[in-house]
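User: I've been trying to design a sequence by hand for this structure and keep getting stuck. Would you show me what you'd pick, starting by listing the structure so we're on the same page?

Assistant: Good idea, let's start from the same input. This is the structure you sent:
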């Protein structure tokens, strides 16, 4: 099962990708999480990415394609994976298609999640994450525990540096300019679906599960 979750920042890709990953036992590949981990570990990649992420811009296609190529070659990806936050440019989509061809993988299912922009801004400004495992906290659906520690791993719960209003606007601008055109790239193929993400998490998840079931029944 090869899935691409597509959509603007804050539509719920990370939340849904985690749930799908658990349900179908395939890894969630979040390029944002990978870059944040590299920053925490102070690797060369982390040093390069830190300022770019803080500005709300995109890390270069070459770097991202290298990262994805390495990640999807890992043994845990042999039965599939779910991409969250990749591809974000046409060049990344083209590079990914090439990698799929080289590895003789089946065409991925692309699911776009759509949420109105005013809701996205509200969600992102109030979002907090565990700095260790990336778990997502939200005042309404998953409130922060009183001790400010992640119940799963004990990590500190923090606000992402790029979840401030100025950077959020920049990220949305970058999304419209560089990432939205990728939608047309995938719309041309038959396994493209658009769903409404402005609903409770379980309802969005159910729709994704229904799509996956129908695709695999057809296969
Ligand atoms: P995310 O956690 O998906 O919102 O990503 C956080 C930030 O990481 C983005 O604003 C970009 O700066 C960077 N990033 C994540 N994925 C990509 C990608 N596929 N291409 C370029 N930059 C990325």
């Amino acid at each position: 099962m090869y899935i691409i979750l597509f959509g603007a920042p804050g539509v719920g890709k990370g939340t849904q990708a985690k749930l799908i990953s658990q349900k179908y036992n395939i890894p969630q590949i979040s390029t944002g999480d990978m870059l944040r981990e590299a920053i925490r570990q102070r690797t060369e990649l982390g040093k390069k990415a830190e300022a770019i992420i803080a500005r709300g811009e995109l890390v270069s296609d070459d770097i991202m394609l290298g990262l994805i190529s390495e990640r999807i070659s890992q043994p845990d990806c042999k039965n599939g994976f779910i991409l969250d936050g990749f591809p974000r440019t046409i060049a990344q989509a083209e590079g990914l298609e090439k990698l799929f061809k080289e590895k003789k993988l089946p065409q991925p299912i692309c699911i776009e999640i759509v949420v109105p922009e005013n809701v996205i801004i509200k969600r992102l400004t109030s979002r907090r994450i565990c700095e260790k495992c990336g778990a997502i906290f939200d005042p309404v659906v998953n409130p922060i525990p009183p001790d400010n520690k992640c119940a799963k791993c004990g990590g500190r719960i923090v606000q992402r540096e790029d979840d401030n209003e100025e950077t959020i606007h920049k990220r949305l601008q970058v999304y419209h300019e560089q990432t939205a055109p990728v939608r047309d790239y995938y719309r041309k193929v038959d396994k493209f679906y658009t769903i409404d993400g402005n609903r409770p998490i379980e309802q969005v998840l159910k729709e994704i599960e229904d799509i996956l079931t129908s695709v695999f029944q057809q296969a």
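That's my pick for every position. To get oriented when you compare it with your attempt: Strands lie at 2-6, 28-30, 81-84, 109-114, 128-130, 136-137, 157-158, 192-196. The mean pLDDT is 95.
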